[in-house]
Amino acid sequence: MGKNRRIMVIGSGGREHALALRLLESDSVGEVIVCPGNPGTEAAPPELADRGKVMRNVGGDPTEAAVTSAVDLAVVGPEAPLCAGLADRLGDRGIACFGPSELAARLEGSKEFMKSFAERHGIRTARHVVVREPGALEAALDGFEAPPVVKADGLCAGKGVVVARDFDEARQAALGMLSGERFGAAGTTLVLEERLIGFETSVHAICDGKRWVVLPPVQDHKRLLDADHGPNTGGMGTFAPTPRVGGELMLRIERDIIGRAVQGMAEDGCPFRGCLFAGLMISPTGEVVLLEFNVRFGDPETQVLMGLIDADLAELFGAAAQGRLMQKLSLRQAHALCVVLAAAGYPDNPRKGDVIAGLAAAGAVPGVRVYHAGTRRDGGRVVTAGGRVLGVTAVADSMKLAREHAYRAVEAIDFAGKQWRGDIGLSVLSEAAS
Ligand code: AMP
Ligand code: GLY
Q1: Whose CA is nearest to atom 4 of ligand 2?
Q2: Which residue segment(s) compose the domain that 359 sits in?
Q3: Which of the listed residues 150, 293, 330, 355 has the most CB atoms within 10 Å of its CB?
């Protein structure tokens, strides 16, 4: 690959907008094509276009689009195509892909696979049992002293986990999944898991099959409303690095979770190349327990991580895809915070078609990028077109400043029914102040 790389990003959300923009900023990149993309990835922003850089969207089948455009590297955003073998298909057509093979993607695609893998390789997870039929459910529930967490085995777009408040809620959730009513075939095998307490954090690692580099620890905010009220969502906001995860804890996460996983996958004959995202619970005594692996970048975790990487991202992804990751990762000494703006009715029934105003004013706040997710162009206007609409992200020298700038930009954007949380990052700032 030369100095004028052409990269394809596959996906259409806020994560892909953030990846595409950060890749286009890399010195080695001349063009980023996003398949299918969104209104945010239609064109390069003026400051990059002025340097001769091109960004555009294409439709159609991603493998065919990558071959036709003769891209140097494909970067796959979402998990579903990875679990369905997209990296393998791209590889068969001679396209280098940053993203794991179908076999390696089972770390996210099957909770049962993940659990047995973790057991085999000494990665600590919550105690669990697998249930395959309603007749086995009562005996399985009897094995728990407190109501267990119920998890569908397969991919359920982030909705396959029920943290039950009592045994009856766990039973009803399990029966709904086992019958196939809730999630079809993805739910007919279940994992019941001991409920853990502590605080959650996410650690992403760029892996080349043998080696890895870790990115700063992220904290997300899964519930819809302030102070963690309301239903679970795909994520209403993030910040990084989280001061709750210090250097010593990070080293243990790297050694006991990421390192064991990369080595374990290589030993098992399905080396992991791509982004490994570990969802972790840190117990009150500081023990690290794995809740889940994802085989791709998080959304909206990516929106904050992209502002903290100081490396040529295309070079880094290319090296990982080709099994030649040698460099240490250089990071900016900065803080990033993302506030998600969601549509009216999200998460159950997001309304579409509300006109979005104020995008330019929000983008003019210092250090702010407004990443598009559920948006659509409608003539000269941009309208809502999905649940999570925008990821308003600020990078600054301190968390306090990142938070102030992100919320100033949030106030500048207007659409009917706009929902957002006012407390992203607030808890750690209050902890720091007390
Ligand atoms: P997962 O998709 O497995 O990460 O689960 C989604 C969310 O459910 C996690 O981020 C946690 O908030 C919660 N969760 C999952 N497993 C557990 C567990 N064993 N104990 C407590 N909370 C959990
Ligand atoms: N924000 C959580 C995820 O991307 O899975």
Answers
A1: 298
A2: 334-428
A3: 150
CA of 204 to the centre of ligand 2 (A): 11
Cβ neighbours of residue 184 under 8 Å, at least 6 residues apart? none
Residue nearest to atom 19 of ligand 1 (CA): 195
Q: Classify residue 22: in a domain, yes or no.
A: yes
* Three-state secondary-structure class, residue 174: helix
| Longest alpha-carbon distance in the chain | 66
Within this chain, do residues 225 and 293 fall inside the same structural domain, yes or no? Answer: yes
Find all residues with CB under 8 Å of 316, minimum gap 6, and list them: 206, 213, 309, 325, 327, 329
Under the banding of pLDDT at 50, 70 and 90, the label for residue 2 is low
Atom of ligand 2 minimally distant from the CA of 158: 5
Residues 226 and 295 reside in one and the same domain? yes
Residues 319 and 211 in one domain: yes
E strand or H helix at 265? helix 260-267
| Residues 6+ positions from 205 with CB-CB distance below 8 Å | 212, 213, 214, 215, 254, 258, 262, 275, 276, 277, 278
- On whether residue 107 sits in a domain, the answer given is no
- Residues 343, 325, single domain; the answer is no
Nearest Cα residue to 392 out of 414, 368, 415: 368
- CATH code where residue 42 lies: 3.40.50.20
Stated pTM of the model: 0.95
Q: What is the mean pLDDT of residues 148-173?
A: 87
- Given this model, what pLDDT does residue 1 score? 47
